[in-house]
Specification:
Layout (H helix, E strand, L loop, with lengths): L2 H103 L4 H14 L2 H33 L7 E3 L1 H17 L2 E6 L6 E3 L1 H18 L4 E10 L2 E8 L6 H4 L19 H11 L3 E7 L3 E9 L9
Parallel strand pairs: 2-4
Antiparallel strand pairs: 1-3, 4-5, 5-7, 6-7
Helix pairs in contact: 1-2, 1-3, 1-4, 3-4, 4-5, 5-7
Bound molecules: adenosine-5'-diphosphate (ADP) and magnesium ion.
The site of magnesium ion (MG) has 5 residues, from helix 5.
């Protein structure tokens, strides 16, 4: 190879290397850019997922709202009427006392006063009024407690858990879910509940509450008039299990594959969003648990939520 040829080869090699370096740099820049885009997309997805969870809640809340209004309206109705009769009765007691007062002031004999006192007691039916008031008071307090409970259960349903797990009593979470669904279910199905003794776990109350609300609402929508739903919880080894079993129409093999797919629904618009099970699946997974399904067309379906019992909170000192 002559020196000139060598130089040419050298230059060509140098040029190629430069091109290769340029290519590498371009590629790295592209990679960096698409990585940034991916991170951004991932964040947007997370945000969307959070929004979806919230909108599924709101959609089921829409269905729940009418029932909940009724559930609150009922006790309010009798509290209102209790207070109205309380006012009337108080006026009678006031009249009776005024009358007694006048009599004492008018200087009648003790005998006369005693007689008209007894008469007044009978006319105004004071003994009955007083005992009736005790009942009204007990009933009123119970009604107010029911309203308070419903409002607090609704709050726990709509609340967004902040990022931290807290000690959760799964039975309490289940009870709250049953309570806010009560009006929707009580005219349609019979619910049997059996709470087993459970350890407290670390988790997200709102999310688990939403899981139970959806599973119970699904069961209620799957059964015929007067259908049966069995809700039970138990500790099974290292697992907390919550089962919701119905004797409804069941799920076909074909549909079983899609149950947890977002937007899969067999319900008419307005009744189903198709998001309940996919969100429930994610929420249960966040607790290190799983959802199992057993179903037979025509005889019923059992959903079982399994949560690790081992995630008990650290004992406080
Ligand atoms: N207990 C059940 N019995 C029968 N089918 C069920 C039951 N639970 C869920 N499904 C089926 O799974 C589908 C998806 O449920 P889900 O994700 O909660 O959405 P949605 O209730 O809004 O339809 C339902 O539309 C229904 O076809
Ligand atoms: Mg549902």
């Amino acid at each position: 190879m002559t020196e000139a040829e060598f130089h040419k080869a050298y230059l060509r090699e140098k040029e190629l290397r430069k091109q290769a370096e340029q290519l590498l740099e371009d590629r790295s820049r592209e990679l960096y850019r698409s990585n940034a885009q991916l991170t951004e997309a991932n964040q947007a997805l997370h945000e969307q997922q959070r929004a979806m969870v919230q909108s599924e809640k709101m959609a089921s809340l829409g269905v729940l709202a009418a029932g909940v209004a009724h559930e609150i309206n009922n006790p309010l109705g009798f509290i209102y009427s209790n207070f109205s009769s309380l006012v009337e009765g108080l006026q009678d007691i006031q009249r009776f006392l005024n009358q007694a007062d006048q009599m004492i002031a008018s200087g009648q004999t003790v005998e006369q006063i005693r007689n008209s006192w007894r008469e007044g007691l009978m006319i105004y039916d004071i003994a009955y009024l007083l005992s009736d008031y005790q009942n009204l008071a007990v009933e009123t307090v119970e009604g107010l407690e029911r309203v308070k409970q419903i409002v607090s259960d609704l709050k726990s349903f709509t609340r967004q858990d902040d990022g931290n797990k807290v000690p959760v009593d799964v039975n309490e979470c289940l009870r709250a879910a049953l309570n806010i669904l009560n009006n929707q279910t009580k005219y349609h199905s019979q619910i049997e509940v059996e709470y087993g003794e459970l350890p407290v776990i670390q988790g997200y109350f709102g999310k688990l509450n939403q899981v139970f609300v959806n599973l119970i609402a699904n069961a209620d929508q799957a059964v015929e008039e007067n259908g049966l739903i069995r809700v039970s919880s138990r500790l099974n080894g290292q697992w907390i299990e919550v089962s919701i079993a119905d004797n409804g129409h069941g799920i076909s093999e074909e549909h079983k594959k899609y149950l947890f797919t977002p937007f899969f629904t067999t319900k008419p618009v307005g009744e189903g969003t198709g998001l309940g099970l996919s969100i429930s699946h994610n929420s249960v997974e966040e607790h290190g648990g799983e959802i199992r399904v057993e179903s037979e067309v025509g005889s019923g379906t059992t959903f079982t939520v399994r949560l690790p019992a081992g995630s008990a909170p650290a004992p406080s000192d």
